Automatic annotation (TrEMBL):
Subcellular location: Cell outer membrane
Domain Pyrrolo-quinoline quinone repeat: 76-289, 290-378
Stated name of the protein: Outer membrane protein assembly factor BamB
Gene Ontology CC terms: cell outer membrane
SUPFAM superfamilies on file: Quinoprotein alcohol dehydrogenase-like
UniProt keyword Membrane, yes or no: yes
Summary of the function given for this chain in its UniProt record: Part of the outer membrane protein assembly complex, which is involved in assembly and insertion of beta-barrel proteins into the outer membrane.
Assembly with partners or alone: Part of the Bam complex.
Gene source species: Halopseudomonas xinjiangensis
């Protein structure tokens, strides 16, 4: 009962923090979108509906690219494999249970997770089920693989490594959770040698991919405040590994650059974010929890520019796209900002029910998965 209470409170906190669970008269509304002269246009190349999309829960199901194939899943268990160039369907399957963590790929597998703690591996060629395995709690982010192991981070902050061929457990890494956490967790980064994960305690850990032995851990954010809500410092966004530097952002804490080999902190920058950073043009970009988009110098961690036009619009994590930064919002708009100075240069609406997960970039194409289930491919005009 204690565990259930904590998760219910965490789910409520996540709703409040996202701006959809409060009726306070003092709460400022989302910023109105101001008109501007567009410098670039985004054209829709194709659109494909993926069932019910994110569903009624606050899911963050993300598509995945592997070669020429694009994979996406909806909350009711539909998994679809498509050609990334034209959106034509190669195969689709309907699993017998709803999904909460999707999609991951690697080693010839398409990987998804469920609310009741199951990990399911499908064959990438035809979608047939290869294996399923049980873990300790909800899987709220896509499983990741280096072709040898599948690494799953569960809601209770455990890391499971499963054999890519059989689903058998290879190792388990456990950590202690705070009393109160945001519902959700970071997506691990899995290389051939190391696994990196962000935890709800504000720590980033690195363990050996082969056996799960800890290599290092680093505190990115220190809990502060009197209440448990004030002390929440979850790392819920995706970590970014760029060359030998790992970037992580926490809620009510910091954006930090860490040495991937040693865990030593190169710099930290005060920040509060639910999403992960993006890297490009010598900068690190971040969507703050209040909707401010910020660029930070990649070498020193100092602010280069801030765009405050999208405050309280519940932005996705940013992605770098050509010479732009792309973010999406709760009304389904995709915004393009110039990487050089953060000015608004383009905008298009893709889903009236909003967009909750960061777009995916491949070359000159931006793939956006809307909450309603519409997966859209966009290209610069």
């Amino acid at each position: 009962m204690k565990r259930m209470s904590r998760l219910l409170i965490a789910g409520f906190a996540a709703a409040v923090l996202a701006g959809c669970g409060s009726s306070s008269k003092n709460e400022l509304p989302p910023a109105e979108l101001e008109k501007f002269e567009a410098e670039v246009e985004l054209d829709r190349v194709w659109k494909r509906n993926i069932g019910v999309g994110q569903g009624k829960l606050y899911n963050t199901l993300v598509p995945a690219l592997d070669g020429l194939r694009l994979y996406a899943a909806d909350a009711r268990g539909r998994v679809v494999a498509m050609d990334r160039d034209d959106g034509s369907v190669a195969w689709q399957v309907k699993l017998k249970e709803p999904l909460s963590g999707a999609v991951g790929t690697g080693g010839g597998r398409v990987l998804v997770g469920t609310l009741d703690g199951k990990v399911i591996a499908l064959d990438e060629t035809d979608g047939s089920e290869v294996w399923r395995a049980s873990v300790s709690s909800e899987v709220l982010a896509p499983p990741q693989s280096n072709g040898d192991v599948v690494v799953v981070q569960t809601q209770d902050d455990k890391l499971f490594a499963l054999d890519i061929s059989s689903g058998e457990r290879r190792w388990l890494y456990e950590s202690t959770q705070p009393v109160l956490t945001v519902r959700g967790h970071s997506t691990p980064v899995v290389s051939l040698r190391q696994v990196f994960a962000g935890l709800s305690s504000g720590r980033v850990v690195s363990v050996a991919a082969e056996n799960g032995i800890p290599i290092w851990e680093q505190q990115v954010a220190q809990p502060k405040g009197r209440s448990e809500l004030e002390r929440m410092v979850d790392i819920d966004g995706k970590l970014v590994l760029d060359d030998r530097t790992l970037y992580a952002a926490s809620f009510q804490g910091n954006l930090a650059a860490l040495d991937a080999e040693s865990g030593n902190q190169r710099w930290q920058h005060k920040a509060s974010s639910h999403g992960g950073p993006a890297v490009g043009f010598g900068s690190v970009y971040l969507s703050q929890a209040d909707g401010v988009v910020e660029a930070v110098d990649q070498g020193r961690g100092t602010t280069l520019w801030r765009n405050e036009d999208l405050q309280r619009r519940r932005l996705t994590a940013p992605v770098t796209f050509s010479s732009y930064v792309a973010v999406a919002d709760f009304e389904g708009y995709v915004h393009l900002l110039a990487q050089t100075d953060g000015r608004m240069v383009g905008r298009v609406r893709v889903d009236r029910k909003g967009v909750r997960v960061a777009p995916i970039v491949v070359g000159d194409t931006l793939f956006v998965f809307g909450n309603s289930g519409d997966l859209v491919a966009l290209k610069l005009d």
